[in-house]
Fold these 3 entries.
Entry 1:
Amino acid sequence: MGALEAIRRLEAWRGQRVYVHLEVNPEAYLRNASGTLDEVGLFGEGLFRVHLRLRDPAALVYIQDVTEFVEDGSAIVMMGLDGQHRVRQTLTVSDTPLDVGKVES
């Protein structure tokens, strides 16, 4: 899936509740945050910046240096890879809740 197709799919969800997973390795992790998708922005070439504005509740999601766009079932996965092709950051957006797994001790 290319960047334009990913953005086209996200634009189709404007006005609908979406679920967001954001992961920045090794520093941050946010799973199943949700809100109504209000705006979608894609900027750059090759290394993209993606902006999502949500409402109900109000939020802004931003990820930069995105190099890959992948469809995973009903989800759109946007990833930035490092120089060794390891996932550095991921933004996943879906119109259905994402699996949160379970915490094991």
Entry 2:
Amino acid sequence: MFRRVATAVAALSLGAAGFALAPAAQAGTSGTEKAWTPPSCQGHRANTAVWVTCKGKGSASQVRMVYACRVLGQVVRHTTAWESLGARSSTTISEECTFEAVSAKGEYRRP
């Protein structure tokens, strides 16, 4: 008899604890919070110019351009500083290569 009561009490305690922890575990997943949406970035190059145009898609972000220039036959990679991008805004980041532009792409992260 004592075993049955102890088992029932333990089951009720675990059930109550699980019920109490479940809402706390789901605190960050409520329907009121929006998921972060990354911006869209498009890289361009022409002769010695490189530029990236980024557009926000509903979430604030930070963006930068990673680009490559050819210098005396070698490709050299460069990176600009991070810039803030508003949720619905757009920005263009541009740089100039000394000899030849090879590539440009945008990178993004959460602020």
Entry 3:
Amino acid sequence: MGTCPPPDALRTSGASCQAGSGSRIQHLAATRADTIDTQAAELRRIERDLHDGAQARLVALRMSIGLAEQLLADNPAAAQRLLTEAQEASGHALAELRDLVRGI
């Protein structure tokens, strides 16, 4: 790459700085594209981890709580078991979310 004078010197002298600027622009464009691709891949990984892990756990947790609510009047013992399992599942989901956040 060539050495260019400072921008102020270019403006006052009317000179231009073409030597090497084309290859530098190509390099910067390629580097930017690589960075964008890397960030997009990381975002897809985070979305996949959320969808396959924590989100699935939370959906199951919501269903368990809903079922426990339905069983509460007729079968309080079964409702209590479901609520205990839901409490454990919420702990696992929280731990999974913490792990995911640490990885960001």
